[in-house]
Design goal:
This protein is an alpha+beta fold. The chain has helices at 12-23, 40-47, 58-63, 76-87, and strands at 30-34, 67-71.
């Protein structure tokens, strides 16, 4: 997810490029990229915080020489379980 005033509108590859600008070197061999959609409820919750999903532009990431590991890494069931453990709010 993006964060207000930090990464709004950046794609995944642009995030990597920004990190490279700061490190002055291509430091990544792999990127873990979520390709699963988020529910409307989750999107609404993030929108309240001025956050939104990052576009997973896999071809562009791989063009940077970074190998993508893709999958459903933002499982809402796991997210809710993590939230309950960390802060105990109901999901």
């Amino acid at each position: 997810m993006t964060q207000a005033n930090e990464s709004l509108g950046l794609t995944a590859s642009e995030h990597i490029e920004r990190i490279y600008e700061h490190t002055r070197a291509p430091i990544f061999d792999y990127a873990i990229v979520n390709t699963a959609p988020f529910s409307a409820q989750t999107l609404a919750r993030y929108a309240k915080e001025n956050a939104s999903p990052i576009q997973a532009d896999i071809d562009r990431i791989e063009a940077l020489g970074v190998h993508c590991i893709v999958g459903d890494f933002a499982s809402e069931e796991q997210l809710c379980a993590t939230m309950r453990i960390e802060s105990r709010p109901p999901c």
